[in-house]
Amino acid sequence: MGARDRIAYIRGLLDAGGAPEGISAALCGAVVEALEALAAENDELRKRLDEQQSAIDDLNFVCEELDSDLAHVEACLDVGGEADELDREDEEREDLESEYRETVCPSCGLHFFCHESLLNDNGEAECPDCACRFNPAAAREESSDESDG
């Protein structure tokens, strides 16, 4: 027997025989109305829950299909595996490191990477932190002289 059936049974008892001794009919009626409102809300929540469960099931199906498709694409594209990809990343990093030189600002001490295209006509770089202009090659020579001595 569901909640709605039980509430209908209580309402029938109240309608047929009146309120039990010591309890007013108005109070019993209010309790039954509150129970009916809770049952209606419960029915609505159950309906929404069923809709949500259906949506979740649909999404799970779509995700499984996508996962299967992705696995197929990965299998088709797997030429040399992960090792080749790591080798390419290392080569790209080395290429970037050969194009950019680590530079230290003599004014504020900021370490940054500088590309030749960023130098002005006099071969000077500008520190991105303090805007000090300096020659990176001269700064490297001075820092290597200091570390030697």
Explained architecture:
By secondary structure, the chain is mainly alpha-helical. The chain is built from 4 helices and 4 strands; from the N terminus they run αααββββα. The strands form 2 sheets. It has a two-stranded antiparallel sheet with strand order 1-2. Strands 3-4 form a two-stranded antiparallel ribbon.
For the structure shown, list the relevant keywords.
elongated, two-stranded antiparallel sheet, 149 residues, two-stranded antiparallel ribbon, 66% helix, 4 strands
Topology:
Elements: H1 3-17, H2 25-77, H3 82-99, E1 100-104, E2 111-115, E3 125-126, E4 133-134, H4 136-148
Antiparallel strand pairs: 1-2, 3-4
Helix pairs in contact: 1-2
Regarding quaternary structure, what we see is single chain
Total number of helical segments? 4
Strand element count = 4
The run of helices and strands is HHHEEEEH
What percent of residues are in strands?
5-15%
Major sheet description: 2 strands, antiparallel
Strand arrangement within the widest β-sheet reads 1-2
**Which whole number gives the mean pLDDT?**
79
Number of domains: 2
Instruction: Tell me the helix content.
Output: 55-70%
Q: Report Rg.
A: 39 Å
